[in-house]
Design brief:
Layout lengths: L4 E3 L3 H7 L11 E4 L4 E7 L5 E8 L17 E3 L10 H6 L1 E6 L1 E8 L2 E9 L5 E11 L6 E11 L10 E3 L1 E2 L1 H8 L5 H7 L4 E5 L24
Parallel strand pairs: 4-10, 5-10
Antiparallel strand pairs: 1-2, 1-7, 3-4, 3-6, 6-9, 7-8, 8-13, 9-10, 9-12, 10-11
Length: 222
Amino acid sequence: MCGRYAFYSPSEAVAALFGVSASPTVEPRYNIAPTQFVASIRRSEEQRNELTMLRWGLVPFWAKDPAIGNRMINARAETVTEKPSFRSAYRKRRCLILADGFYEWRKEGDGKTPYFISLANGQAFAFAGLWERWQSKETEEILQTTTIVTTAANDFLSQVHHRMPIVLEPENSTRWLDGDMDLLDEVTVGSPLFRAWPVQRTVNNARNEVPELIEAAGDAIA
């Protein structure tokens, strides 16, 4: 799964990388957690890439209670075309969720050690995401929410956890937004090169939000 991540690159630079306007400006974040609003790129009604903020935790358009989104932070690539919660969004409402790295916890002894994982080249990237628009029938409140698509971990990341988010580098981002149905199979087999190192357990508390969270607290994984 993917339950915590960081996005701290200048939004202008990342916007240029993914071919979108830099508005709105996104503040650096080092401990992004579910139910918070996250920087995402999606297609506008005019079919242009737009940078927007979506709440993490997908609420299907048919849901009676938006609290269901608390359990929908990830969508499994293996079943995303079949699950009622995700299949419509997979066909029609895809997005890119901007990131510089993510956290996973590895079982070590009697506890779990958090690791920070990023691309080996240090470049910003995007998670493959889905989004939905939900409206309350009682109050007409509108929520726009998102989820991160995950898959089985590659050989390198399996040293930390058995699942990993689908990571899209810029060259694949357009294909994802275009609705390419073959891309998931390709990127799960040919996933990018990563680097990973242990960090302090202060990241366990989502209220902690400082750059020091991503600093190495031990040796990187070989």
